[in-house]
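Data availability (excerpt). The following record was deposited with the supplementary files.
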Amino acid sequence: MRRFARHLLLTLLTLPVLAACARRAEVAFAPFQQAMFSAGQGFADLPLGTPLSAFGTRFGNPDLVGAIAGDFHAAELIYRTQALHFRFEMLPACVQGLQHAGRVVDGLGELRRPGEFLAHHPECADSPLQSVAVFSDADGAGWFQGATGQGVKLGSDKDLVLRNHGPSQQVRGVSLAGSSAEDSAFDELLYVNGLALYLGPASDGGSWRVRRIVAFAPLHE
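Predicted structure:
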């Protein structure tokens, strides 16, 4: 009973902290809800290349963190209320520090609390924002209501996309926030200026519409 009481107390104490983190993110992201989302840049006030330390200080704790390991290492910070994904490329010094600790992937998972993570791994502070993704639901509705520089929004139909952005181009060597095994079910349009659009069918079976927009920078120039 005492153990249960301690667990309940911890839960009750934790809930206000989580709520405060959610409110902090909500306030911090509010100016971006209807902002322009530019190819190769992302948001003007949060451009690609922004260091991890500046991001964590400004936006607080993400809801989820994904770790990407392979030819390169990256961490993806996910804010579910806003359906925003931010992918940071981990610098070599950061990866080496995590390898020295013997836990690269698990270590990146500690970015659920960016402040604590960077206190333990200051060599990761300058790791740059490499790509940003905004998502919609199956009907094209989403928290983000802004548009690309060519006027394409979440929910825009394919005709508008092709008219404003043109056909997909050949792009290689990029890392895209929000990528998953489900991407094969979508129509992927990539552009060399640093933009990716993912289109899927509407829930009512209507025309394909933009479900995800990604601004990215080349992984290795």
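Summary of structural features: The helical segments are 2-29, 52-59, 92-100, 104-109, 114-120, 158-165.
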